[in-house]
Queue: 2 jobs
Job 1
Amino acid sequence: MKAEANQLENIWGWNNLKLFFGFLFFVFILNNLLFAQLDSLSNITEDVLDNILIEADEESESDELVSIVEDLIKNPIDINTIDVIEFSNLPYMDPQSAQKIVEHRDKFGYFYSPTELYSIKELDHELIENILPFIKATTQKAEIESQSYQDIFDDSESFFTKSKFHIRSRITSDLQNRDGFTTNKYEGSKIKSYNRFLYNFDKNYQAGLLIEKDPGETSYTDFSSFHLQIKDLGFVKTLIAGDYVLEYGQGLALWSPFGFSKGADSIYPVKKKARYLHAYTSAAEYRFFRGAATRLSFDDFNLTAFYSNNTFDASIDSVNGEISSVGISGFHRFENELDKKAAAKEKLIGGVLDYRFLGKMNIGVIYYHASFDKEFASTSIYDLSGKSFNYFSTYYDINFSKISLFGEASYNGTSVASVNGIQFSVSSNFIFTSSVRSYPRNYNNLFGFGFSERSGKINNEVGVYTGIKWKIPFGIINLYYDIFNFPYRTSENSLSSEGDELLFDFVTSPISKFEIKLRYKYENKEVTELISSNEMIVKRLKQIARTEFVFNLSKSLRLKTRIEYNHFFVRDANKKEDGFLVFQDVRFVAHKKLNLTSRIIFFQTDSFNSAVYEFENDLLGVMPNLAMYGKGIRWYVIAKYKPLQFLSISAKYSETFKPDETTLSSGDNEIIGNLDNRFSLQIDLNF
């Protein structure tokens, strides 16, 4: 019966593939009658993130960072209304350039078009080209001023003219069967589904619904998220009922589950770019708020008030009923995982008051109370314990003509975590930044995401980061050095540990349409290794050297080649490993409506320890970071097709082949054989 079911599933998959390609052929014929041009949203997003991020040493499929860039493109900021602080939220922007734009606007009046920025002699033309996708210029005074509630509904335009719908539906499925499915441990199908609906009325109202199912889960609504949002109505800047996130200061007290960390751009990620009160539209199933919140504006003061009553995944001790751990995977595939689903409740109530002076200074205070229905079990005196917590935080952002000072200090009732930094635009070609962070081992916060070595964790870490961005006549240099210390034990090490990290990134364009990227990363960190049957804290040196060539042959064709070498060395254990990766990437605009992307990757590493990571192109809204280890070949092809003005279709097929292996992955995810392939399909409707 099992074999027959697998055969039926394979036939079903093949039939659906035939239907899909038949549908593509149909809409290809139809587009001769109805014309639509493929937009460049995904290409711009990919390029921006490629210039900002470096691959972390962990796999991820988060869509949140992609969403941040997409939101900037879909909702460009108005250069006729924003101040220096808001300008700093843009990728590539520095304080001095922001100051020049504001001074020009104050002297000569509103910009009639973003291209007017080219008239400012002090601005770098490459900077202007980079920020053009994220800005607009509103020239009519009535459009610039906030609308009142009555203005919206007194307008003679029809309901349908003001209404906009965006529907995104995506399915992903492994074509091979993993152990959890063959043994019937996973109760649901192996399809991963994602469906998001957004409705906008005029510029002020939005309703959103998201439902998602992971592979192995039984319900296609295993996770659901919703929100109703009102924006820019008189003194009401934002009002949200439903799911939302809060981003203030430098993330020590309140931030979304994701954020930029150390990256290829040595300046941009250091100073956090707060989005304040924001509707939650991610599929990540943890650390968001569910309730109601509003942000009110009174001249130079802004007041945010919020209330949340939400559940979260947790492991509950069967003896004392305490929370032993918080779940963040979002998987609910079998009994043990289902027992953790929504096993604990949290309530938050609080507010944020911030003051902005002349668009150059922003200071604020945060207070909130968090309570839980169960006690947290403390495994040490420095872990989170209890069921009721109070947080108080202050933050600042002060901008002079060339200098930006920023920081935050947060108190949890026991200790104070702080981060303070400076950005100094020495000239339009040279920017310097430095940041000092001090996160005590007894500072714990479930709702923060600060700048740190360990993916936003803001406890048990002290560090000093220094970076420069230097534009020289023949290229751009990004360089940072970060030294850090973990005073107490961590989940990885049983004793205190330390380390340092250096990144050198150089981009040059020796000839038109040809770009060379060189990167060297040095990381010297203390880790736990098993030596002579004893666990010991030892120094681990990891070095990465990368060369990348990008050749824009035409507006329709771009080639990208990467060669990367990874060296892993533990002296005390006499352990050396090497990793090597080469890939060839092709992006081809075959037609105004059809965009093709393909990549083939060759990799060989001694083990998972020396894995080489690479961000992949994917469907709209997705950008996975995958680990390449062992010996093998991976390739994928993506087609993004826009047959009609309101319809976009994208599909991806990926395949990883390891010739020397008999099984892939491990545990419940193990695949019998040496082939791992996957197919994804997404439809976007905008009307």
Job 2
Amino acid sequence: MGGAGHDILIGIDAGTSVIKSVAFDLAGRQLGVASLPNRYTTRADGAAFQPLGQTWADCARTLRDLAAQVPDLARRTAGIAVTAQGDGTWLVGAGNAPVADGWLWLDARAAGLVRELRGRPTDRARFEATGTGLNACQMGAQMAQMQATTPEILDRAEVALHAKDWLYLNLTDQRVTDPCEATFTFGNFRTRSYDDAVIEALGLTPRRSLLPEIADGTQVTHPLTASAAAETGLLAGTPVSLGYVDVACTALGAGIHTPGGGAAGCTIIGSTGMHMRARRAEDVQLNEDRTGYVMLLPLPGMVAQIQSNMAATLNIDWALRLAGELMADMGHTVSQAELIGRIEGWLAASAPGQLLYHPYISDAGERGPFVDSAARASLVGLSIGHRFPDLIRAVIEGLGLAAHDCYAAMGEMPAEVRLTGGAARSPGLRGILAAAIGAPTRISAREEAGAAGAAMMSAVAIGAYPDMEACIADWVVPELGAPEEPDPAAVRTYARLYPAYRKTRLALAPVWANLAERQDRNNG
């Protein structure tokens, strides 16, 4: 346990949309949260990036703001843990100064190179080791792209970090990464270490020295430095844990694994859609299409097998933006919040299974359960009688069918799905997801699951709990709601619809390729 008066843990979660710092007591009750919107830049060439200095300054600001909410925060803090958006490439050089802006997971510049790398004979062995399908969002692909196009950037770098690693460097002056992100990018999930054959398959053996040491935040902490203490308002020497990537921390905090919980799944419905199963490493079923992720969990021998949709609620945002722009053109300004408030009514005014929507709205295409940077959203089955409520329902049904597609690629369907993410608050969306997957859902009442998962790692590291299983019993199990059973008629409807969804997306692949080719010629 922490020392006298040390009764608070802080979880930092630097996401794609928001950077937040959250205070919890040692039993997992949330005491306060401070947040700032994250800012990044995109370009027409697929680039997505943000300044490293800005990210650290925003993180430090949220910690100072948290102190304004929680009395005597600095003295009471027993431990700090940090997680952040995954993938991407954050290069650091001499004096721990940034070499360039951080490439985000949204960056698609490596898409063409990924197609080439996936076509090489060595990619199967890389996939067997990492358990993770290669795509443009990953550090390995992005560093290979830099090596091919701008090697001078890599020449100036001394270490290649992810977002959370960069924040940890600023907090502790330590250049390390976590075993989860290290292995699904450059390693072997069975050994929890780097794998030289994987690095060679990516063509990055000459850059092997850029990969940092691996530190597990449930076992290793480093003290908050004096300079970081001055910037954050916390006390120098406070133990800091490097959390696993935000997806793994969110899954942990949301209930992907509970003692005796059985064959549950965990779905995060946010900007992206993450569909996960907790498994022993030896029980992982890798698919022939070489897609998905295997992410280590901070539990001995346990991993999360994951299939991830590139876009989830981004599809809903697109549909609502169409409505908002149309209203604005007619002189009526409607806020995003007002439009979101109408979704339940639109669902009630529409019938299930009338249209097929493939939710591949991201410019980066799709990564789960297939990898295709050319994939694009489609609406199939329109007739003159369909209305806007039918379109909204089709978009949300598309998210449910995409979730089914992802779980099916990992083996048997889950007996239950734990839901988290902002969209999980919608009863209509939850009902569609449950029916499309064919399993009851349970909502985690945990508001900040990612920050909580990171803080749980700190709780174990400082000895507040003997192990993660004991921490889960206090922090996770009480937050899970009662199971919500799907409507049997809707289950039957979506069971009949899913084969058409899958056949259509397979048939569309050459169409996407043709459209991408035409776009490339036009841009050329």
